Amino acid sequence: MTREQTKEAIKVMQAFVDGKEVEAFSPCQKWERATTPRWGWDDTQYRIKPTATLRPWTADEVPLGAQARIREHPKTRWLIDRTSSEENRNDWCKNYEHSTDGGKTWLPCGVVEEAK
User: Fold this and answer.
1) C-alpha angle with apex 65: 53 to 96, nearest 5 degrees?
2) Distance of CA 13 to CAs 5, 101, 103, Å?
């Protein structure tokens, strides 16, 4: 193992100690949860499980006609009737949620991107 590989292995093992989810690359060629890793670094790859991130909508992705509300004030609702500026869409992503089913379910105002 090189010095850099050792540093990365330490990060992964420390994350495991800290209670974060760790994955191992399986013989089936996919990442699977490693609940009790054996730390066989010579023949197994390990990583800290990536987390999904939320990014603001682009102008083309804004669901026009959907209801929106501020998370902290859920009783006040409004219809999304314009794509608005990038600055406003960033604010929506941080502070608002939206519904496309008349308020039955509420989702973040943005796109959840799964980490790879």
Assistant:
1) 40
2) 12, 43, 43
Task: Please tell me whether residue 34 adopts helix, strand or coil conformation.
Answer: coil
20: domain range? 3-48
Per-residue pLDDT in tens (0 to 9) along the chain, 116 residues: 999 999 999 999 999 999 999 999 988 889 999 999 999 999 899 999 999 999 999 999 999 999 999 999 989 899 999 988 999 999 999 999 999 999 999 999 999 998 76
Whether residue 101 sits in one domain with residue 61: yes
Q: Which of 48, 63, 81 is the last residue of a domain?
A: 48
